[in-house]
Amino acid sequence: MGTTGPGAAGSGSTKRHFRVWRGDPAGGRLEDYQVEVNEGEVVLDVIHRLQATQAPDLACRWNCKAGKCGSCSMEVNGMPRLGCMTRMSTFTETETVTVTPLRTFPVVRDLVTDVSFNYAKAMEMPAFAPPADLSPGDYRMQQVDVERSQEFRKCIECFLCQNTCHVVRDHEENKRAFAGPRLFIRAAELDMHPLDARGDRKEQAQAAQGLGYCNITKCCTEVCPEHIKITDNAIIPMKERVIDRRYDPIVWLGRKILRRDQLASASGARPAAPGPVVHVSESPAPFVPAGVAWHSPEPSPAAAPVGGDGRLPVTELTLDRSGASSPFGDDVTFPLPVDQLRYQPPSSS
Ligand code: SF4
Ligand code: SF4
Ligand code: FES
Q1: Gap from CA of 309 to ligand 2 centroid (Å)
Q2: Closest ligand 2 atom, CA of 70?
Q3: Which residues contact 172 (CB under 8 A, 6 or more apart)?
Q4: CATH code of the domain occupying 115-318
Q5: pLDDT tens digit string along 204-262?
Q6: What is the pTM of this model?
Q7: Is the CB–ligand 3 distance for residue 74 below 6 Å?
Q8: Superfamily of domain 14-112
């Protein structure tokens, strides 16, 4: 064996115990491996060594090995992580390292999952709508506005946040009605964009993206490798603006006495430039491109709980930390307990 390349073990190497989920949509199991690990390596290095030495057919998606392509998302010892950014020094020398696929998406094979749910949700999202009174090249933004959305543009689409969110993690039935934190930051970015001519981002987020399903557990923020403050800087501000819009007595009165077009102009929304900038139906009914299959038959979307006054509870908005308990059962706590480190394809659970 040489001293370089994925199969190589260096001089300071130790043998470590890995458990890796192997299987396909029909089922699978955790397989045990004893594998060399060198100083400074990451979990993806060890997966590559397994492929080079013991498991040439082990499927794993990766690309950049630099934390920038978002391909190598997996669950390591019950924590959603990027394999290429998880140092082996995170674990003690005697610790078993268990690697399983993302739980929320259907498995294709071994560690590779079908994340097309996220792309379908992205296609439902109305695109940036430039104002009709400006031509490309005439757009001007304040630096403060640029910086506000810059944080959200750091997203590498690893979908760790989507995988972590308990609203869809074990609830296939919610996937129709819930776009997830990655799309909430996109909605927030466009809602904060001074040149976006659509005035209904908040309504879209609430009615078509399922913003109300989020109970601000902040799990998505905790796993984001780009350290985007998904809940504090995107979801909570969007929820607050939805509430402002819905319960502001002046807006309520305006709804009663103004026509829709008058209301839009009163809200400051600018007319959008004509052209194919919106690639989605205006209807809140989800758009599903051909070929995208959710794991289970379509259920009715679960209705958000409303009080006797017909309103959503807003207590979560007054808290500076996790919100009320979830209507979808217990929130998931990460990392998962050691005795729960297993994986079942969602379709078989
Ligand atoms: S805060 Fe919690 S419920 Fe809301 S999107 Fe993030 S993970 Fe999901
Ligand atoms: S917001 Fe963070 S966790 Fe979610 S997809 Fe983007 S980079 Fe990944
Ligand atoms: S391989 Fe690109 S983020 Fe890990």
Answers
A1: 36
A2: 8
A3: 294, 295, 296, 299, 346
A4: 1.10.1060.10
A5: 899 899 999 999 999 999 999 999 999 999 999 999 988 776 666 666 666 667 665 55
A6: 0.78
A7: no
A8: Beta-grasp domain (3.10.20.30)
